[in-house]
Amino acid sequence: MSGTDILPFGAAVASEVLSAFQLPGGSVLTNLAEAYVDKKRREAANILIEEVSKGYHGPIAFEEHDVDPLIEIIFRFSKAVSDGAARENLRLLAQIIAGLKKKRAFDPDRFRRWCRVLEHLTRDELLTIGLAYRADVKTLPDGDKAADTFDQTLRLMLKEAGYSDEVEALLASVASAGLLSSASAFSGLAYSPTPWLKELCTLADFEAKSTR
To answer: What is the DSSP secondary structure assignment for residue 204, as one 8-state letter?
Structure first.
């Protein structure tokens, strides 16, 4: 079964269950699910067109040799849509497509890597990435001490954003995506930015995700 069939299939199962319990509305639910899938497809196409034509990176012009990789990238973007990636995540992925082209790194494998990293992250995890980028920029002038001050700065930013008990889980989740690295410290784990974090934040607007 393809990803695009998941919601209609789920609606059909729900219809069977409703019928078994002699509840009305099974066919209506199927129709609503199909309409929802169509709406998601249109929204995703509009997001991608908007980001390429006038988005975060400005207008992006594609050339004839971009056609094959662009088709492959759009297919992978469409899979993220069908797998249920949130609108916010799709916009970031669309920005990455434009960013890869702008930076002359327009490669489907690079885009697939970022899809694996981003497509199912929560809003809180996206915000943590944005704050991690801000913390990296803020502590960069510290030179050799930046590795120590980054962890402290990011934790303070997360607490100021209203997180408390969730801080460790958020940091661990972003680290598991390859965007932070961890090392043993006196009080537990200390985190530092990875090259992936720095690269990602040049491709998509995570500064806009750094407020709750």
So the answer is: S
**CA neighbor of 28 nearest in space, from 39, 18, 41, 38:** 18
Largest CA distance in the chain: 69
Cβ neighbours around 16 below 10 Å, total? 11
Task: Say which residues have a Cβ less than 8 Å from residue 202's Cβ, sequence separation at least 6.
Answer: 99, 103
Q: For residue range 74-126, list pLDDT tens digits in order.
A: 999 999 998 889 999 999 999 999 999 999 999 999 999 999 999 999 999 99
114: phi then psi, degrees, rounded to nearest 5: -70, -30
Under the banding of pLDDT at 50, 70 and 90, the label for residue 209 is confident
- Here the tokens at position 160 are 């100021």
Distance CA 149, CA 147 (A): 6
Minimal CA–CA distance to 123: which of 209, 40, 31, 64? 209
| Cα–Cα distance measured from residue 70 to residue 159, given in angstroms and rounded to the nearest whole number | 41
Rounded (5°) CA angle 35-41-45? 145
**Pure H helices in the chain:** 6-20, 26-54, 67-82, 87-102, 108-118, 123-139, 146-160, 167-176, 195-203
Q: Can you tell me the distance from the alpha carbon of 125 to that of 144, in angstroms, rounded to the nearest whole number?
A: 27
Using alpha carbons, list the distances in angstroms from residue 133 to 5, 109, 179.
Answer: 37, 24, 10
